């Protein structure tokens, strides 16, 4: 089983790769915060209560803007989407994780990105583009030209994979996927590794990048103890099997 410190090295290797290839425009190093028997894998400027602070207002422009304003992410990709990793180890055993891919709610072009100096300036760019888009939408609606507008606002949901066996109930799977709203908890086979998450993001949302880089396609998967229950297997759920362990 991979340790918290091994995960830190893996995440920082990923961040270095994304920066070197121009796929990320801002980043925060992965670090570990130790507290008693707990080790929390987080980022350098993350809130102290990582697993509580990021709950609420899920899948809203307000939440996204708060995250980019406070740089609450491990990295921001070239299109303004952000990636967060969070793992909690208790007595060297994985007890929680929260991995989130948060797409930018606006279409951000490469020329937009070239107009700013650093990721710190992205909030100003986002506010400007959002204001322009709202003004354009307002004018289009009043002039009955809405259907002709080149809409930059996107109906894109974040994807957040949570693992929290301490909160497991019949309606709260130990491992689950949030999308669209906080109350949607789609059962997942078990805790997901960095490899599962990286492959999920780039394979499904950046297919050209996925096809170009062997590093992403070959990123290893680690499997922890499955947490899916018989009841959850009777519903639609997210599955993945470790075929390498089969005879």
**Arithmetic mean pLDDT:** 90
Beta content: 15-25%
Overall SS class: alpha+beta
Radius of gyration: 19 Å
Contiguous runs where pLDDT drops below 50 for at least 5 residues: none
The domain tally reads 2
What would you call the shape? globular
- Determine the fraction of residues in helical runs and give it as a percent range: 25-40%
The SSE string, one letter per element, is HEEEHHEEEEHHEEEHHHH
Total helices: the number is 9
N/C terminus separation: 20 Å
The largest β sheet comes out as:
10 strands, antiparallel
Count of DSSP strands: 10
Structure description:
- The protein is an alpha+beta fold.
- It has 2 domains: 4-105 and 154-241, no CATH class; 112-152.
- 33% of the residues lie in helices and 21% in strands.
- The protein is built from 9 helices and 10 strands.
- It has helices at residues 4-20, 50-53, 61-69, 110-114, 122-142, 194-205, 207-212, 214-217, 230-233, and strands spanning 24-27, 30-35, 38-43, 75-77, 82-84, 87-90, 93-102, 159-163, 175-179, 181-187.
- Strands 1, 2, 3, 4, 5, 6, 7, 8, 9 and 10 form a 10-stranded antiparallel sheet that branches.
- It is globular.
- The model has no long low-confidence stretch (mean pLDDT 90).
